[in-house]
Amino acid sequence: MFLPRERRPAPPTSAPDDLPTGTGRLLLVDDEPSLTLLEKRLLEELGYQVAAFNSSVDALDRLEEDPDAFDLVITDLTMPRLTGLALANEIHELRPDLPILLLTGLQRRHHARRGPRAGIRQVLLKPLPPHELAQAVAAVLQASR
């Protein structure tokens, strides 16, 4: 005998009213597919166009195809083959004006000191509440326009 599955409320289909919305083309990079999916959904609900990658190498290849295709890069720090900081350095060589948000579960100070040289505008600590990500994206895009 089987019991019926517990019904859970559906996730919201639109962004909460208290989160800043915006427009822009974002390149999102994180080697954890579940995080990439959640962040992509949130950012799209806020009005952004998001290209998400689980490989920093693939993300860099995409950016090399068209360096002007994005307004902001959001990348995790710890990834195989090409770390977020190495990715930021490569992106900075291609397009020095492209702002980068670095997400990390590691200590902030170490990377914040090296960040500005690689185009990193802000370092955010994981786990990241949705309002922090939304506010950081809106602020960085506003400052870069």
The CATH class is identified as Alpha Beta
Largest sheet: 5 strands, parallel
**The CATH H-level homologous superfamily:** Response regulator
Question: Class by helix and strand content?
Answer: alpha/beta
Beta percentage is: 15-25%
Helix coverage percent: 25-40%
pLDDT average, as an integer?
86
Q: Name the poorly predicted regions.
A: 1-14
Could you describe the 3D structure shown?
This protein is of the alpha/beta class and 145 residues long. The chain has one domain (25-144): 3-Layer(aba) Sandwich (Rossmann fold). The chain has helices at residues 33-45, 56-65, 84-94, 108-114, 130-144; strands at 25-29, 49-53, 72-76, 100-104, 120-125. Strands 2-1-3-4-5 form a five-stranded parallel beta sheet, sandwiched between helices. α3 links the parallel β3 (72-76) and β4 (100-104).
Nutshell version of this structure?
This protein has 5 helices and 5 strands, in the order βαβαβαβαβα. The chain has helices spanning 33-45, 56-65, 84-94, 108-114, 130-144; strands spanning 25-29, 49-53, 72-76, 100-104, 120-125. Helix 2 (56-65) packs parallel to helix 3 (84-94).
